[in-house]
């Protein structure tokens, strides 16, 4: 991305795909690829230098829009302070009802916007159900033909359910959004000098046969 700077101020943002007219002079789009940095800047076109130091993972945070500034002979694009996404559900209030903001079928106290915890727990449940579905046929066979379910299958299915419960508890007990992010962040837990072992505090579902 580029910016047109005139009289020390940014007057236009440019995507570098179209030509431009400056002071009555027409320039083709080739100036963005064929001209040197100094040649472009001589006519007031600067390539934007991005400062992403405040940009955070959008799974957990809401980033601000980028603001652009010219100074020190360069154009910089910067993010403001990111806001952590709400980890709890927001609910419809009496004021929402007064203002007519509650849709049909909903009422005061119902969920207005799901928080991260609700979404993450739903994801854990879905993962567990998908894993269990792989061996549901053992359960069906037992029901229909009284064929015993292999002990390793029963042990694994119980392990899935236990891990699901533990994951949901960890998510529920997380104090805030950064704590939720930490649960999902992989770190090397191996001792120094040992092979790398990447693990996350939330843990993983057991594999069949493990």
Verbal overview:
The protein is an alpha+beta fold and 210 residues long. The chain has three domains: 2-83, no CATH class; 85-114, no CATH class; 116-199. Helices cover 35% and strands 22% of the residues. It contains seven helices and 13 strands. Strands 2-1-5-8-7 form a five-stranded mixed β-sheet. Strands 3-4 form a two-stranded antiparallel ribbon. The longest helix is centred in the last third of the chain and has 23 residues, at 151-173. The protein is elongated, with a radius of gyration of 28 Å.
Topology record:
Elements (H helix, E strand, L loop, with lengths): L1 E5 L2 E6 L5 E3 L2 E3 L3 H4 L2 H6 L2 E7 L9 E2 L4 E5 L2 E5 L4 E2 L5 E2 L2 H5 L12 E3 L2 H18 L2 H10 L5 H23 L3 H7 L3 E2 L9 E2 L11
Parallel strand pairs: 5-8
Antiparallel strand pairs: 1-2, 1-5, 3-4, 6-9, 7-8, 10-11, 12-13
Helix pairs in contact: 4-6
Task: Describe, in short, the structure shown.
The chain is built from seven helices and 13 strands. The protein has 210 residues and is of the alpha+beta class.
Strand content range: 15-25%
Q: Element order, helices and strands?
A: EEEEHHEEEEEEHEHHHHEE
Average pLDDT level: 96
**Largest sheet descriptor:** 5 strands, mixed
Distance between the termini: 50 Å
Radius of gyration: 28 Å
Structural class: alpha+beta
Overall tally of domains: 3
Kindly state the percentage of residues in helix.
25-40%
Q: List unreliable stretches of 5+ residues.
A: none
**SS field, number of helical segments:** 7
Based on DSSP secondary structure assignment, what is the total number of beta strands? 13
């Amino acid at each position: 991305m580029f910016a047109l700077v005139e009289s020390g101020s940014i007057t236009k943002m440019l995507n570098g795909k179209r030509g431009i007219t400056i002071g009555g002079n027409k320039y083709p789009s080739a100036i963005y690829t064929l001209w040197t940095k100094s040649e472009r800047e001589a006519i007031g076109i600067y390539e934007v230098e991005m400062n992403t130091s405040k940009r955070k993972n959008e799974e957990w945070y809401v980033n601000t829009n980028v603001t652009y500034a010219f100074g020190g002979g360069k154009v910089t694009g910067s993010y403001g302070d990111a806001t952590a996404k709400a980890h709890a559900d927001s609910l419809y209030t009496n004021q929402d009802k007064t203002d007519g903001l509650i849709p049909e079928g909903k009422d005061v106290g119902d969920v207005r916007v799901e928080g991260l915890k609700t979404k993450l727990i739903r994801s854990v449940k879905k993962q567990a159900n998908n894993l269990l579905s792989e061996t549901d046929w053992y359960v069906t066979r037992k029901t229909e033909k009284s064929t015993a379910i292999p002990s390793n299958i029963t042990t694994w299915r119980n392990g899935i359910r236990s891990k699901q419960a533990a994951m949901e508890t960890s998510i529920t007990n997380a104090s805030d959004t950064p704590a939720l992010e930490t649960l999902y962040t992989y770190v090397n837990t191996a001792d120094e000098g040992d092979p790398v072992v990447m693990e996350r505090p939330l843990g993983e579902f057991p594999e069949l046969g493990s």
